[in-house]
Automatic annotation (TrEMBL):
<dbReference type="GO" id="GO:1905515">
    <property type="term" value="P:non-motile cilium assembly"/>
</dbReference>
<feature type="transmembrane region" description="Helical">
    <location>
        <begin position="12"/>
        <end position="33"/>
    </location>
</feature>
<feature type="transmembrane region" description="Helical">
    <location>
        <begin position="77"/>
        <end position="96"/>
    </location>
</feature>
<keyword id="KW-0966">Cell projection</keyword>
<dbReference type="GO" id="GO:0035869">
    <property type="term" value="C:ciliary transition zone"/>
</dbReference>
<keyword id="KW-1133">Transmembrane helix</keyword>
<dbReference type="Pfam" id="PF09799">
    <property type="entry name" value="Transmemb_17"/>
</dbReference>
<dbReference type="InterPro" id="IPR019184">
    <property type="entry name" value="Uncharacterised_TM-17"/>
</dbReference>
<protein>
    <submittedName>
        <fullName>TMM80 protein</fullName>
    </submittedName>
</protein>
<feature type="transmembrane region" description="Helical">
    <location>
        <begin position="45"/>
        <end position="65"/>
    </location>
</feature>
<dbReference type="GO" id="GO:0016020">
    <property type="term" value="C:membrane"/>
</dbReference>
<keyword id="KW-0472">Membrane</keyword>
<keyword id="KW-0812">Transmembrane</keyword>
Length: 133
């Protein structure tokens, strides 16, 4: 039987995992920076931190299910990973557009992450299509 799993998708999972660690630490550092330098209302600090930590919690099953689905050539885990990616995209857009203060570094970090999510989602859909056929 032929191998249907996607090597580019697997590489992207690995790169996204490493990038997300950088993204999380940089975004956390920027939130701390903004809370010290700007007049960051306490009511708005907590939601920004909650979104960042919720995103980190979602990232683990998203990458795990994606890797597992790709390597075992099963569409269900890849589909679940795709669904969790939608949630991660919504949280990323919040941090890009709706957090209290948005710096140019926030825009850059979130734009790269959104591009990675988009590329990964396209590869997931192609892998699922290959597994089903």
């Amino acid at each position: 039987s032929s191998q249907l799993s996607s090597l580019p998708l697997q590489i992207l999972f690995y790169v996204n995992g490493i990038y997300y660690i950088f993204y999380f630490l940089a975004t956390l550092a920027m939130i701390v920076y903004k809370s010290q330098v700007f007049s960051y209302p306490d009511d708005f600090l907590a939601p920004d931190l909650v979104v960042l930590f919720l995103m980190a919690i979602l990232e683990v099953p998203r990458l795990y299910l994606g890797c597992k689905g790709n390597l075992t050539e099963e569409e269900a885990p890849l589909g679940l990973s795709l669904g969790v990616t939608v949630g991660s995209v919504v949280l990323c857009v919040y941090l890009l557009a709706w957090q209290t203060y948005v710096l140019w570094a926030d825009v850059l970090l979130n734009a790269v992450l959104l591009c990675a999510y988009g590329l990964e989602s396209g590869l997931k859909v192609m892998a699922i299509a290959a597994f089903v056929s």
